[in-house]
Amino acid sequence: MLELRDLRKSYGGRDVLRGLSHTFRAGEFVAIMGESGVGKSTLLNLIAGLDRPDSGEIVLDGQSITALDDRAATRLRRARMGFVFQAFHVLPHLTLEQNVALPLLLNRMPTQRAAEMLDAVGLGGRGGDFPSQLSGGELQRVAIARALVHRPALVLADEPTGNLDPETAESILTLLRNELKASHACAVMVTHSHAAAEKADQTIVLTRTGLANACVA
Ligand SMILES: Nc1ncnc2c1ncn2[C@@H]1O[C@H](COP(=O)(O)OP(=O)(O)OP(=O)(O)O)[C@@H](O)[C@H]1O
C-alpha cells in the first residue's frame, strides 16, 4: 500500500538517502530505527510529502505522492494520513475535542467521531478540557486520537513516546497498536527505543547504505 522506489535525497551535496526501496503493507505497524543522523526523520518527511526526494518515487495506494503539486500533496496528506509528530502538536488554544475534530473538519466529515475517539483513548468526558490541563502521556493519547480520527490509510509517528516514562510509553504504544489494528491502517514509526520497536510488527534499521530488515516479529 506504501511503496518507496529508489529514493535519493541529499542536503548540500551530502547524500542522506541513497536509493532506498521498500514496500509497506496495509495494516502493518513498522518501526524504523537507526543511528542519529542516518535519515529517519528525512524519510518520514518525504513519505508525508513535507519534503521532496531528489529522485525516486513514493506511491500510496497506487498514487504517486512525488508526482503531486503542493496543493494536491496537502489534500492527500489531510485525507489519507495521520500524524503523531512534535511539529503537529496538540494546539493549546483548542479544547481536546476540538483538537481531535480538526482532521474531520479539514476533510468536511461529521465531527461526532471526535468524542468517540477520545473515549477510545481513555479520555471520555474530558473533551472540554484544554491541553494545559493534561499530563504528557494524556497529550500523546490526544495526538493518537487526532491522528486516527479520520480513518487514515497511513499513520506516521516520530518518537511518539520520546519523553514519556516506560509505563506510560507502553500503554500509549498498546493503544496505538490496538487502534491501528482496528482501523487496518499502516503505520510507520521512527524511534530510538527498542521497547517501542518491540510493539511494532516489524523493525527496519536504516543504515548509511539503505534499508535493511533487522528482524520480523
Ligand atoms: N533541511 C535540512 N537541511 C540540511 N540538512 C538536513 C536537513 N534535514 C536533515 N538534514 C541532515 O540530514 C541528515 C539526516 O537527518 P535526519 O534528521 O533525517 O536524521 P535522523 O536519523 O532522524 O536523526 P536523529 O535520530 O538524530 O533524529 C543529518 O545529517 C541532518 O543534518
From TrEMBL:
Keywords recorded for this protein, A-Z: Amino-acid transport, ATP-binding, Cell membrane, Membrane, Nucleotide-binding, Translocase, Transport
Residue ranges of the TM segments: none
Gene Ontology CC, one term: plasma membrane
One example of a Gene Ontology biological process annotation: amino acid transport
Molecular-function GO terms, alphabetical: ATP binding; ATP hydrolysis activity; transmembrane transporter activity
Statement: the UniProt record of this protein carries the keyword Iron: no
ABC transporter domain boundaries: 2-216
Short name of any one Pfam family annotated for the protein: ABC_tran
PANTHER family for the chain: IMPORT ATP-BINDING PROTEIN, TRANSPORTER, PUTATIVE-RELATED
Entry similarity comment: Belongs to the ABC transporter superfamily.
Task of the protein: Part of the ABC transporter FtsEX involved in cellular division. Important for assembly or stability of the septal ring.
Protein name: Cell division ATP-binding protein FtsE
Species this protein is from: Zemynaea arenosa
Species lineage: Bacteria, Pseudomonadati, Pseudomonadota, Betaproteobacteria, Burkholderiales
